[in-house]
């Protein structure tokens, strides 16, 4: 794949005004070393839990008995800032139910997670023996300026581990503001189609397609989707998940 051609397409798709909005939304969030970081990172230092009680979910999974669709990622998956029951996995459950699929969607998103955190949590998700896993990581790596090769290696480790556990994988990507530099943004954004091709998995290059920059779809932090936005994200994910399921 010509990486520059792909990034040009992504820029055209997302729009320069969208990326500018993301940049302004991220302004003012600083790490200790003076670099920019995501609001997701800051939120982890705030009081209060950022993770759903997984023990209750596990018990429900055992009792329910339906095969699992696991949404595995960071705050974009967790539904940070949205009302309870308004994350994109919640809407994906409703969409699958409405389409006649008998699967249980489990939200394994944790705000602030990097790809390294995802690797650290991988064994627990593997043990769930999901039918499908929607893998969404990398945004926090990019916003902290992590090495692109390290991010790609961590994503590859998760894809390999999930496939080895018997799950079918859907890869969901994200992009970055232009002030991170054209070379870095191009390399980062290319991680997702490159890995999708290598491992033969379906990919959604930009999780917030038709959401970012649309009035009412994003929260005030310009990073996380609203309830309306998460409903659209679920509709973005559904066409990639649906061919992997059985009615």
Describe the structure.
The protein is an alpha/beta fold. The chain has a single domain, classed as SGNH hydrolase (Rossmann fold), CATH 3.40.50. It contains eleven helices and five strands. It has helices at 3-14, 16-26, 39-44, 54-64, 75-78, 88-98, 115-127, 139-143, 148-164, 182-199, 227-241; strands at residues 68-73, 104-109, 132-136, 168-172, 203-204. It has a five-stranded parallel sheet with strand order 2-1-3-4-5, sandwiched between helices. Strand 4, helix 10 and strand 5 form a beta-alpha-beta unit. Helix 1 (3-14) packs across helix 10, helix 7 packs parallel to helix 9 and helix 9 packs parallel to helix 10. The longest helix is centred in the C-terminal third of the chain and has 18 residues, at 182-199. The protein is globular. Residues 1-53 have low confidence and may be disordered. InterPro entries: Ester_Hydrolysis_Enzymes, SGNH_hydro, SGNH_hydro_sf. Residues 71-231 form the SGNH hydrolase-type esterase domain. One of its GO terms (molecular function) is phosphatidylcholine lysophospholipase activity. It holds the Pfam family Lipase_GDSL_2. This is Lipolytic protein G-D-S-L family.
């Amino acid at each position: 794949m010509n990486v520059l051609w792909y990034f040009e397409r992504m820029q055209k798709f997302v729009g320069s005004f969208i990326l500018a909005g993301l940049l302004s939304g991220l302004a003012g969030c600083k790490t200790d070393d003076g670099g920019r970081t995501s609001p997701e990172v800051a939120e982890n230092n705030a009081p209060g839990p950022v993770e759903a009680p997984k023990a209750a979910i596990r018990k429900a999974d055992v009792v329910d008995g339906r095969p699992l669709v696991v949404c595995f990622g960071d705050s974009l998956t967790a539904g940070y800032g949205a009302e309870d029951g308004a994350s994109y996995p919640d809407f994906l459950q409703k969409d699958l139910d409405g389409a006649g699929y008998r699967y249980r969607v489990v939200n394994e998103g944790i705000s602030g997670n990097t790809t390294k955190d995802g690797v650290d949590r991988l064994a627990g998700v593997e043990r769930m023996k999901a039918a499908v896993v929607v893998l969404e990581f990398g945004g926090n790596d990019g916003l902290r300026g992590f090495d692109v090769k390290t991010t790609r290696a961590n994503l590859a480790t998760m894809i390999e581990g999930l496939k080895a556990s018997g799950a079918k994988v859907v890869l969901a990507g994200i992009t970055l503001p232009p002030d991170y530099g054209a070379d870095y943004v191009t390399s980062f954004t290319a991680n997702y189609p490159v890995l999708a091709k290598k491992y033969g998995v379906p990919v959604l290059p930009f999780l917030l397609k038709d959401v970012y920059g649309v009035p009412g779809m994003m929260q005030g932090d310009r990073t996380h989707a609203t309830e309306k936005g998460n409903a659209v994200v679920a509709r973005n994910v559904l066409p990639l998940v649906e061919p992997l399921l059985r009615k």
